[in-house]
Amino acid sequence: MLAKAPAIIFYPALLVWCLVYGVVAGVVFKLVAVYENWVAINRYHYILWKKYPQRSYQKYISSIWASQIKGLPVELAEYTRGKIEQNHPSEPFPFLRIIANTVFMLFIVPYMAVTGMIMGPIHVFRQQMQARNHYLNR
Question: What is the pTM assigned to this prediction?
Answer without folding.
Answer: 0.68
